[in-house]
Amino acid sequence: MHLDKINLKEKYSKFTKHWSPRIIAEMNDYQFKIAKIKGEFIWHDHKHTDETFIVIEGEMILKFRDSEIKLTKGEMCVVPKGVEHKPCAENECKILVIEPRGVINTGDKVGPLTINKDVWV
Amino acid sequence: MHLDKINLKEKYSKFTKHWSPRIIAEMNDYQFKIAKIKGEFIWHDHKHTDETFIVIEGEMILKFRDSEIKLTKGEMCVVPKGVEHKPCAENECKILVIEPRGVINTGDKVGPLTINKDVWV
């Protein structure tokens, strides 16, 4: 049995595009996705699943309809299913997102930022 | 809707015991657990689930029956279900473990290191 470790920095070095999550690992039917984000994403929710954000480098704001949370390196937040949220980052921020396989990044708000296929890095 | 962020460093500061995972968050039926490890754990596997290890600080060795992986800060590994493994750390290492709710840390090798209740921090 040969198992490889996954080095986040090395994985981040392989792409530059913002708001373009890349899968780095799967655990059962869940996926670990890394993303570089900068600017404002769109308001959306995920009706059937919670979604976890962990900041690996930099700083992001998770906006909710009536509050917001600033997350910096080493901080995380689990957004409950059905809760509208809007990820934002003034400067580039590197995040790790954990959610079930098949979740679409924009929820049902399909548009130019939608990624609906699995892209591994 | 009020959501809190979770700061890993702050959570680690609240306990000292080794091999004593503490839950910091739940996502659907999965749990995020932090642990401080030092020394050798026992050989075990989890028959029905994969298990994710992320090193937050320090260095650990994940031993398998025929290989081993050294994981340092910013590195992770998903141990597939049914694969025997033995976490070890020469010096204290801080890890984040992600797995379904109800998974027992020692698998079916119940003994003095077994934690079979949910402890939040």
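qc> The two ends of chain B are 22 Å apart (CA to CA).
qc> done
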